[in-house]
Inverse folding.
């Protein structure tokens, strides 16, 4: 595989000739590291979405970050000056709701290691929160999410319920959330590993990326074939692994976590490897218009 990727200055490092870009109807975009880093949009991002709109390609923002509800993500997207409706957003919490309805349809009382924004979203989906305000009842299930408000007390309590053999679900496997600040944002996967270390139990499911159902839900909703949607992201073990599992084209961009070196080590072969999403927009314009 090492010879497939050019290490020069060309922005297209690899393009699998089997991918037919003229068929693409919708692009699923990872967010952190793909369209922005931390709170800062990349300088080319707005133009990319304007271009997609012009050539009639729709898009979904896809994030494993479950620290914000889809509603709060929509606000963030709009504040960045991008166009979106709630339909354009899929989070690992969306995938978790989908999983819970399929596998635990009768569960209503849950303990959530998550932010107020996420817990509100669970409430809106009909769940009752068991927490410090409601300690008289036992939860039927525990959800571990990216909790930027995590306290020691809540971590201990959630771990206790897992230790009591309540089924538990982690929204996504990421151990670190990318940031442009001088810190490490410890993410859901790391907290889940801690709980596993203490209780010896693995979660029943981890419905966020790289679970293929996160893409499957979008394909169902818009009635798309596998060659009509592509997944764009900066992470190999979530974004590109999900594309592989869902058998759709994966587009790796180098604006976030992955480097050409880490790609070689991973053994995965995304269909496209590009400097950034602006290069993807150029390729799609060329495919759709011939220019
Ligand atoms: Mg990312």
């Amino acid at each position: 595989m090492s010879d497939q990727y050019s290490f020069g200055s060309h922005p297209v490092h690899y393009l699998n000739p089997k991918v037919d870009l003229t068929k693409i109807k919708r692009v699923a975009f990872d967010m952190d590291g793909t369209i922005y880093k931390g709170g800062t949009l990349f300088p080319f991002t707005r133009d990319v979405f304007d271009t997609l709109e012009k050539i009639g390609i729709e898009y979904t923002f896809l994030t494993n970050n479950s620290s914000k509800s889809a509603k709060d993500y929509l606000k963030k997207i709009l504040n960045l000056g991008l166009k979106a409706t709630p339909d354009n957003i899929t989070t690992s919490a969306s995938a978790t709701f989908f999983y819970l309805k399929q596998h635990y349809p009768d569960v209503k009382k849950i303990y959530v290691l998550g932010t107020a924004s996420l817990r509100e979203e669970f409430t809106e989906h009909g769940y009752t929160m068991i927490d410090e305000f409601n300690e008289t009842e036992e939860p039927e299930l525990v959800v571990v999410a990216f909790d930027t408000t995590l306290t020691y007390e809540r971590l201990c309590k959630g771990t206790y319920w897992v230790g009591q053999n309540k089924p538990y679900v982690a929204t996504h496997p990421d151990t670190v959330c990318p940031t442009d600040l001088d810190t490490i944002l410890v993410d859901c996967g790391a907290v889940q590993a801690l709980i596993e270390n203490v209780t010896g139990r693995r979660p029943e499911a981890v419905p966020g990326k790289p679970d293929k159902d996160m893409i499957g839900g979008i394909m169902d909703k818009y009635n798309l074939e596998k060659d009509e949607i592509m997944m764009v992201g900066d992470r190999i073990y979530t974004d590109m692994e999900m594309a592989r599992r869902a058998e759709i084209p994966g587009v790796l961009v180098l604006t976030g976590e992955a480097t050409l070196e880490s790609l070689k080590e991973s053994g995965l072969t995304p269909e496209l490897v590009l400097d950034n999403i602006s290069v993807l927009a150029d390729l799609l314009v060329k495919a759709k218009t011939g220019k």
Summary: The mean pLDDT is 92.
